[in-house]
Design brief:
alpha/beta, 287 residues, globular, 15% strand
Length: 287
């Protein structure tokens, strides 16, 4: 297990922004179709939701994909497993689906993915990425989102340069209220706070769902973190506005990184590989 001090999320957000233009992207065409199905776990599942929003179809996660396919009699779906390492749950998904006579494709950042043992080489599509510490996964899914949308990197760079960084440590809970179309980014931010910042709880939801009672109870220890929307209720709020999926992803990682402590980083290194062993994850090189 690695024990050296690691750089924080903000460092890797900037490194991703710097390196993205130089990465080679796979020769991949995904036609818009209601038969597209994107599978993933963690932030791969959230990335799959963005793909489904723009390419049609649906997005499933590791908790529900087997239920879906057990009840899906048709065999004409185009299935894409989104998995940075090409291992862990991606390996399990590839094995389970192929045993059920489905033929999934893999979107990954690993040129030698463990899931490859169940897939044809022509069905594996590799995106560039930085070598990052466990749980970070900034460049991995940033590369996939950039491939999909080709958003303006200069605009994102300028936004990060002028960010006002909120002190998240003032609060015990962060609620990410998100313009509906950007809801997957709120889910990513929620997960990243849980993975990265000790002692802070988080949740997130699209605006139209959030207003259905989720913020009725007062909480002086809560920050309402607004992504491309406004909150006019009681309590503290912070607004982050940029009309870009990739921009929100990198800005959020940058802000969370600026609130990350050395102790937070040490927790990741101490606990990640122990959890990976318990889960039986196979992923080749992580960091």
């Amino acid at each position: 297990m690695a024990t050296d001090k690691i750089e924080k999320l903000d460092y890797y957000a900037l490194k991703t922004l710097e390196n993205l233009p130089g990465w080679k992207f796979p020769d991949l065409i995904i036609p818009k179709s209601g038969r597209n199905i994107f599978l993933g776990s963690g932030d791969a599942a959230n990335t799959g939701k963005i793909f489904a929003q723009y390419l049609s179809g649906c997005a499933l996660n590791v908790s529900n994909y087997q239920i879906f396919f057990e009840n899906e009699p048709a065999r004409d779906s185009d299935i894409y497993i989104v998995n940075a390492s090409g291992g862990k749950d991606g390996l399990k998904m590839a094995e389970w689906l192929t045993k059920k006579n489905w033929q999934p494709k893999l979107l990954t950042n690993n040129p030698e993915p463990p899931a490859g043992k169940f897939l044809k080489a022509s069905d594996i599509f590799v995106f560039g990425a930085n070598l990052e510490p466990p749980t970070y996964n900034i460049s991995t899914y940033a590369a996939m989102i950039y491939w999909l949308l080709r958003e303006d990197l200069g605009q994102i760079q300028e936004k990060i340069k002028n960010l006002e960084i909120p002190d998240l440590r003032k609060y015990k809970f962060i609620f990410f209220m998100v313009q509906d179309k950007y809801e997957p980014l709120g889910r990513m931010a929620t997960r990243k706070v849980a993975e990265t910042l000790a002692g802070i709880g988080a949740n997130g939801c699209g605006y139209s769902n959030a207003v259905h009672g989720m913020l009725i109870q007062p909480n002086p220890d809560r920050l309402i973190f607004c992504l491309n929307c406004k909150y006019d209720g009681p309590g503290d709020s912070y607004e982050l506005n940029i009309d870009s999926y990739l921009g929100l992803l990198l800005c959020l990682h940058y802000i969370i990184g600026k609130n990350q402590t050395d102790r937070d980083s040490e927790n990741i290194l101490q606990n990640y590989f122990e959890n990976a062993k318990k889960q039986g994850w196979e992923f080749n090189k992580v960091w």
